[in-house]
């Protein structure tokens, strides 16, 4: 089949996928599986190979993704239920002082966003944001907007979140390098989120009546909130649960970079630095430290961990379906055709990766789908480009930042943020959409700068 025909099928498949998800509200898992079948048939893939290709795509992606997402969800759930988020926010506020409450909340949000999914993490922090805003006499958007911005930035580029982990599995990116780069860039983005949100908040936005009622009634539960915070684990415990797995992953990446192949120390560091082992350690520590602090028995601990799995199951299935779609794009020759066409444009691959991901994000709303689809489209170009593991990680992070921008009405996160902060749709577009786009562009700019430095 000609290159033009393959590219046409590829473009048509993306268009159909967006139409199914946006127009007909088909679940993303079903939509990607259906489109994968249609692409396989349209490109003339032998009928005997179709099912095995789909299974290989699902298994190849979920081999690591399912474990990481499940463990990360369990860790985040235990931190959530124990009250660890309140501990972080209060401690950062004590360190930075009451005049820097927005900065303190944003810093705490960045730390909390590492193990906790964006939607869940933001909802966890909403009562804390409300409490500080009531004390300061300001609307929730003043403190909540930068918090939401940095949490979403971490969600799209820092493992163990599903989009970036699934994308890394498709392009064979090094999770350790992706973690290091993602965190390093998110730190200045936290400051930028604070600055941009402050600029966007230079004029007041009226609160929606329902949010205003909820915000006004919040003080009635202040005593119970205080009692919950008093029982919360210490901030040192929560920080240790987040930092220990990150340190293990970074140790493995450092060993793989500095030590020769076959070296015993490199093998040991590679084992303890594998993301699966690192998260297993964190979950084990959380079971002991948080369980003991909260007085949980074994049944209670198991129930909390199990409650994290139903929401994670949907994420895992969507990620796996994205892997199926990516596998079909590769096996059908569409990936190779796109790779050749991209090479002919002479545009930097990192720029194309960002643009494609941003366009997909704007079109269908899901950052996870945008990351995984873009990685599937560019997998052949990345594999055939002779890139180093560090460069592949940078390309993957660029794709992640592409999925950060242009959050609007087709994104569930848009509605969560605007609902809890009391913004109308128009005000949400003027604030939240602008903030995510600025952070996405800034994150890509820093990633591109690193790309130039390591090239």
UniProtKB/TrEMBL annotation:
<feature type="transmembrane region" description="Helical">
    <location>
        <begin position="390"/>
        <end position="409"/>
    </location>
</feature>
<feature type="transmembrane region" description="Helical">
    <location>
        <begin position="145"/>
        <end position="171"/>
    </location>
</feature>
<keyword id="KW-0812">Transmembrane</keyword>
<feature type="transmembrane region" description="Helical">
    <location>
        <begin position="177"/>
        <end position="200"/>
    </location>
</feature>
<feature type="transmembrane region" description="Helical">
    <location>
        <begin position="54"/>
        <end position="75"/>
    </location>
</feature>
<feature type="transmembrane region" description="Helical">
    <location>
        <begin position="5"/>
        <end position="22"/>
    </location>
</feature>
<keyword id="KW-1133">Transmembrane helix</keyword>
<feature type="transmembrane region" description="Helical">
    <location>
        <begin position="104"/>
        <end position="133"/>
    </location>
</feature>
<keyword id="KW-0472">Membrane</keyword>
<feature type="transmembrane region" description="Helical">
    <location>
        <begin position="28"/>
        <end position="47"/>
    </location>
</feature>
<feature type="transmembrane region" description="Helical">
    <location>
        <begin position="350"/>
        <end position="378"/>
    </location>
</feature>
<protein>
    <submittedName>
        <fullName>GntP family transporter</fullName>
    </submittedName>
</protein>
<feature type="transmembrane region" description="Helical">
    <location>
        <begin position="238"/>
        <end position="259"/>
    </location>
</feature>
<feature type="transmembrane region" description="Helical">
    <location>
        <begin position="271"/>
        <end position="291"/>
    </location>
</feature>
<dbReference type="Pfam" id="PF02447">
    <property type="entry name" value="GntP_permease"/>
</dbReference>
<feature type="transmembrane region" description="Helical">
    <location>
        <begin position="429"/>
        <end position="454"/>
    </location>
</feature>
<dbReference type="InterPro" id="IPR003474">
    <property type="entry name" value="Glcn_transporter"/>
</dbReference>
<feature type="transmembrane region" description="Helical">
    <location>
        <begin position="312"/>
        <end position="338"/>
    </location>
</feature>
């Amino acid at each position: 089949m000609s290159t033009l025909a393959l590219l046409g099928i590829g473009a048509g498949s993306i268009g159909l996928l967006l139409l199914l998800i946006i127009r007909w509200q088909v679940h993303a898992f079903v939509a990607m599986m259906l489109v994968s079948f249609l692409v396989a048939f349209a490109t003339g893939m032998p009928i005997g190979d179709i099912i095995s290709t789909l299974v290989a795509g699902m298994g190849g992606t979920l081999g690591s993704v399912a474990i990481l997402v499940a463990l990360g969800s369990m860790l985040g759930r235990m931190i959530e239920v124990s009250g660890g988020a309140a501990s972080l926010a209060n401690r950062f506020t004590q360190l930075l002082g009451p005049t820097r409450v927005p900065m303190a909340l944003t810093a705490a949000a960045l730390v909390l966003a590492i193990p906790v999914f964006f939607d869940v993490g933001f909802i966890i922090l909403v009562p804390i944001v409300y409490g500080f805003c009531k004390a300061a006499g300001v609307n929730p958007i003043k403190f909540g907007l930068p918090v939401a911005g940095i949490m979403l930035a971490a969600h799209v580029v820092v493992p163990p979140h599903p989009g970036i982990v699934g994308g890394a599995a498709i392009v064979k990116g090094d999770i350790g390098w992706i973690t290091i780069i993602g965190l390093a860039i998110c730190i200045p983005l936290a400051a930028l989120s604070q600055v941009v949100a402050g600029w966007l908040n230079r004029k007041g936005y009226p609160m929606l009546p329902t949010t205003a009622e909820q915000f006004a009634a919040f003080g009635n539960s202040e005593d119970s909130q205080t009692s919950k915070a008093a029982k919360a684990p210490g901030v040192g415990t929560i920080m240790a649960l987040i930092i220990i797995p990150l340190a293990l992953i970074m140790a493995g990446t450092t060993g793989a970079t500095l030590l020769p192949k076959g070296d015993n120390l490199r093998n040991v560091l590679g084992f303890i630095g594998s993301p699966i082992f690192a998260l297993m350690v964190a979950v084990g520590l959380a079971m002991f430290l948080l369980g003991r602090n909260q007085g949980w028995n074994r049944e209670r601990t198991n129930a909390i961990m199990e409650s994290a799995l139903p929401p994670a199951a949907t994420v895992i299935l969507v990620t796996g379906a994205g892997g199926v779609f990516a596998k079909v794009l590769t096996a059908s020759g569409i990936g190779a055709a796109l790779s050749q066409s991209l090479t002919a444009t002479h545009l930097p691959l990192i720029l194309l990766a960002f643009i494609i991901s941003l366009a997909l994000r704007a079109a269908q709303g899901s950052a996870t789908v945008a990351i995984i689809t873009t990685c599937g489209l560019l997998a052949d170009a990345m594999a055939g480009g002779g890139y180093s593991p560090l460069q592949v990680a940078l390309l993957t992070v660029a794709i992640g930042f592409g999925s950060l921008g242009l959050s609007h009405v087709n994104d569930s996160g848009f509605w969560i943020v605007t609902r809890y902060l009391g913004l109308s749709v128009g005000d949400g577009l003027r604030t939240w959409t602008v903030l995510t786009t600025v952070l996405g562009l800034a994150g890509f700019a820093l990633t591109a700068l690193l790309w130039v430095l390591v090239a």
